[in-house]
Specification:
- The chain has about 550 residues and is of the alpha+beta class.
- The protein folds into two domains: about 300 residues, D-Maltodextrin-Binding Protein, domain 2, CATH 3.40.190; about 220 residues, Dipeptide-binding Protein, Domain 3 (Dipeptide-binding Protein, domain 3, Roll).
- It has 16 helices and 22 strands.
- The strands form six sheets. The protein has a six-stranded mixed β-sheet. Strands 1-5-6-8-7 form a five-stranded antiparallel β-sheet, covered by helices on one side.
- Helix 9 packs across helix 11.
- The protein is globular, with a radius of gyration of 24 Å.
């Protein structure tokens, strides 16, 4: 598989090895990203048509976390930082920063000479307003910035954050997609979540919003006054919405669409497209937002209150077979809840229940579920998240569990009904679906296992109803621990306890692909990938 962008990516990996240590000044010159460029000179001009599916509900993420909104937001509204492939911070609207030794004060130096798309100057007042707003209305920002006690702006290009307690992942939470900086003069005095500029954004980014034709496309045009001249190289960026998977594949094959992130085609089409050799594939750019797929038990159900039953289910699953049949081999078997993409926290050698049908049958016998005359021990219902990987995985799980006398009924429903059933109605036995680890375990993992996040109606949280005092203690300690090594150990202990208790079974970390025409260069230059601003991208002749 030929990757014309790989030499550039490797140089970027070397270039972007800047420290994100917990104390001391980290001074990153604004020109650093311009060094180590690929040998080819980027070509100016042209229109790039990209694909996002499904259509985003809103175009700015100041009050939203929808992935598809995040994919478009950063083209206009930027963040203080971007992140390399190892999630080390890279300058964006902030050029330098320092953290006090106790982790309670962050000081950011802002880029000078930056203007909003309407010509107003970008200043520290915009940053202060945006961070306060994220703390108030953003679904994840409410937790990320909960300890933000005060924001000081001693001058137009300095911001000082004062925290009530340490937030060790704060420096990783400042990307454009996660924590966008919006213009105070267009937002102040209005509810941020309903502000009209959420759907006609004004930002500091490389592209200026022109139109959103619902059900069809978004048009962005080159910002001629962008602070990182001569970028952007494109004249125009068009984002298309194509609901049908076969039509998305055809659009890529014909060149109607030249760039598509997030596994835009059916898994069964990937190998065929690769063999054709006319498109380029990369799994880079998903370090910041990454997914795991898991089977979660409802611990309120009498059946799953017995850990022997949960362990029997685990022993019935042949993980390599699941990966190869449901995911066409596109991914990695994952022992615990943390994706291999989060290298600092990933533990590969957890004590995972292996495939062992004899042991599974023995455990169900011990739990009192003898086989009936028809060979069935028990009957239960599995709710798959309505996406291809989850549905195919659930088909496999139904067959696998039948081998130990468990008759599974699969229940299909649309996405909103699925979310309501799991998190509001609590009307399920067990379900299979994906969860994002995000950029840090406190943000992406704690919500799934912390007893305090078990709340009816709170989506994508502790759906099992799991409660373990020691796990709570470790999660809460890791959320404020400023020693990186100690924090890694805390999350390691959490994962070991989860493998003992089995409130869920994390099974697969699927590969996520961006597919591009060979004409599209430098579309993935940091760990945020398509969630970034696409300022570097250009088209060859």
């Amino acid at each position: 598989m030929n990757h014309p962008e790989i030499p550039f990516l490797l140089r970027r990996r070397q270039l972007l090895q800047w420290s994100s240590a917990g104390a001391g000044l980290i001074l990153l010159p604004a020109s650093a990203q311009a060094q180590g460029q690929a040998a080819a000179t980027p070509r100016r001009g042209g229109t790039l048509t990209a694909l996002v599916h499904p259509e985003p509900p809103v175009l700015t993420t100041i009050a939203h976390t929808a992935l598809f909104s995040a994919q478009v937001s950063a083209k206009v509204t930027e963040g203080l930082l971007d992140y390399d492939f190892d999630l080390n911070p890279v300058p964006q609207l902030a050029t330098a920063w320092s953290i006090s030794p106790d982790g309670l004060q962050y000081t950011f130096k802002l880029r000078q000479g930056v203007k909003w798309h309407d010509g107003k100057p970008f200043t520290s007042a915009d940053v202060a307003y945006s961070l306060r707003t994220l703390k108030e209305v953003h679904p994840r920002g409410r937790a990320t910035f909960a300890s933000l006690a005060d924001i000081q702006t001693p001058d137009a290009h300095t911001v000082v954050l004062k925290l009530g307690k340490p937030v060790p992942y704060l420096l990783t939470a400042l990307s454009a997609a996660e924590s966008p900086i919006v213009p105070r003069h267009l937002y102040e005095g209005t509810p941020a979540d309903t502000n009209p500029y959420n759907n006609k954004p004004v930002g500091t980014g490389p592209y200026v919003f022109k139109e959103w034709v619902r059900g069809s496309h978004i048009v962005y045009e080159r910002n001629p006054h962008y602070w990182d001249a001569p970028r952007p190289y494109l004249d125009r960026l068009i984002i298309r919405f194509i609901p049908d998977a076969a039509a998305r594949t055809a659009a890529l094959e014909t060149g109607e669409v030249q760039l598509a992130p997030g596994n835009p085609v059916a898994l069964g089409d990937l190998e065929r497209l690769r063999k054709q050799g006319r498109l380029q594939f990369t799994t880079e750019g998903y370090q910041y937002i990454n997914s795991i797929f898991r089977l979660e038990f409802n611990l309120e159900r009498p059946l799953f209150k017995d850990v022997r039953v949960r362990r029997a289910f685990a022993h019935a699953i042949n993980r390599p077979v699941l990966l190869n049949t449901a995911w066409y081999g596109q991914g990695r078997i994952t022992p615990g809840p943390i994706s291999p993409t989060l290298k600092r926290f990933y533990v590969a050698n957890l004590d995972v229940p292996g495939f062992d049908l004899a042991r599974a049958n023995q455990l169900l016998d011990e739990a009192g579920f003898a086989r009936g005359a028809d060979g069935v021990r028990l009957r239960t219902t599995l709710d798959p998240m309505p996406n291809e990987g989850s549905v195919r995985s659930s088909d496999y799980l139904k067959q696998a569990l039948a081998k130990i006398g468990v008759e599974v009924t699969l229940r299909a429903q649309d996405f909103s009904s699925y979310v309501k059933r799991i998190y509001t109605d609590r009307d399920f036995d067990f379900h299979f679906g994906g969860m994002s680890n995000t950029f840090d375990p406190t943000v992406g993992i704690q919500r799934l296992y912390w007893s305090k996040s078990f709340k009816r109606g709170l989506p994508f949280s502790n759906g099992s109803g799991y409660a373990n005092a020691e796990v709570d203690r470790l999660l809460e300690a890791a959320a404020v621990e400023i020693d990186p090594a100690r924090r890694v150990q805390q999350f390691t202990e959490v994962q070991k306890l989860l493998l003992r208790d089995l409130p869920d079974l994390t099974l697969v970390a699927p590969d996520t692909y961006t597919i591009a025409s060979p004409r599209v260069r430098d579309h993935t230059v940091t760990g945020t990938g398509f969630l970034g601003n696409l300022a570097h991208v250009y088209l060859t002749a």
